[in-house]
Amino acid sequence: MANLETKYLGLTLKNPIVVSSSGLTNSVDKIGKLVEAGAGAVVLKSLFEEQINHEINNIIYKGEGFDYPEAADYVKGYTRDNSVADYLKLISETKKQYDIPVIASINCFSSDEWVDFAQQIEAAGADALELNVFVLNTDKNSDPEAYEQLYVDVVTNVSKVVKMPVSVKLGLYFSNLVKVVNRLSVSGAKGVVLFNRFYEPDIDINKMALTSAEVLSSPADMRRTLRWVAITSDKVHNIDISASTGVHDGAAVVKQLLAGATSVQTCSAVYKHGPKVITEMLDVLSQWMDEKGYSAIEEFRGLMSYSKIENPALYERAQFMKYFSSYE
């Protein structure tokens, strides 16, 4: 029988399937169902600094007697401490009950909070930390280098104060993604997750209102991830790549491993089909390995990465000329 064990962020995973940060991983009971289905690791739902501040503002603006700065400061401290305490409790209780790596996740926009939260998370027993970083650059006069430096600074500052491995969940919005990943690798990051799935706006033309676009991914969304996993894993060797977005079945898991991923994150598929989809993915992976004669993942991981295929330019192709040139 095939050995599905893999390494990610220096951690040993019994298999490469990681459940992404989401509402699926916000309670010990929910995580238990994922563990039972066979998940190799979980990324806990993110601790959002923005959400904590939103809760603070709601309490202050809806409350009475907050004309005094001391009262407002007390509410801010109390709300923040309790939000963080609940998150730390989730980490410690999950670690006590389940024997899989538990990766915490934080989403902050102020550098001092990144460091503070990271230290507390490590003390609570998390095996690793995933930094959910996203800055939307809308300044037409800004320097792309300065935009990228924000990510490097976060990783550098956090890596200095914790011993646990740190990864960064990235979006697509970089002019040179390979360069960014390489800079992160020498700044302390042990891994990157490609790619984050962000809130996307839509417009309701009847109500003339801004709404949210589809939240869950589809299998077709994997096309962007596959390309960049294959390229990045081949060009940056001292960092682990976790493939995320569009992973809905076992074939997708195999493809991402062949492209060079060391782990594969799934979320939308579990929302749509339940934890059993994890078991089904593992069955497909195991069966495929048996059919191909592979006894371990390292025997085939990266065999279809950028430099391993006969024509690497296929990963760079951006036009459809080959397929649609005959269409008028």
From TrEMBL:
Pathway: Pyrimidine metabolism; UMP biosynthesis via de novo pathway. GO terms for biological process: 'de novo' pyrimidine nucleobase biosynthetic process; UMP biosynthetic process. The keyword Oxidoreductase applies. InterPro entries: Aldolase_TIM (IPR013785), DHO_dehydrogenase (IPR050074), Dihydroorotate_DH_1_2 (IPR012135), Dihydroorotate_DH_cat (IPR005720). Its cofactor is FMN. GO terms for cellular component: cytoplasm. Residues 4-289 form the Dihydroorotate dehydrogenase catalytic domain. It holds the Pfam family DHO_dh. Keywords: Flavoprotein, FMN, Oxidoreductase, Pyrimidine biosynthesis. One of its GO terms (molecular function) is dihydroorotate dehydrogenase activity. It comes from the Bacteria. CDD domains: DHOD_like (cd04739). The keyword Oxidoreductase applies. NCBIfam families: PRK07565.1. PANTHER family: DIHYDROOROTATE DEHYDROGENASE (QUINONE), MITOCHONDRIAL-RELATED (PTHR48109), SLL0744 PROTEIN (PTHR48109:SF3). This is Dihydroorotate dehydrogenase-like protein. It comes from Carboxylicivirga sediminis.
